[in-house]
Design brief:
The chain has 80 residues and is an alpha+beta fold. Helices cover 35% and strands 29% of the residues. The chain has one domain: Phosphoribosylformylglycinamidine synthase subunit PurS (Mth169, Chain: A, 2-Layer Sandwich).
Amino acid sequence: MKAIIHIGLKSGVLDPQGRTIARSLSHLGFENVTAARQGKTIELELNNTDKTTAENEVKDMCEKLLANTVIEDYRFEIVD
């Protein structure tokens, strides 16, 4: 099994990297970009065979280490 975790800043948190990306794209001629948010993706290979157990473990990993839940949101999917 594989867990794919997407982590990004919460909507009210300033994102200077996202702002720089949007501004740079505009300077390159991509004028339809009005805003950008920067985040990260983490892929984990898991030995679990039970999807529910894997989901619970990944949620625990995100809460304890992978995401700073004060300023970041996360979502994940478990794929076979």
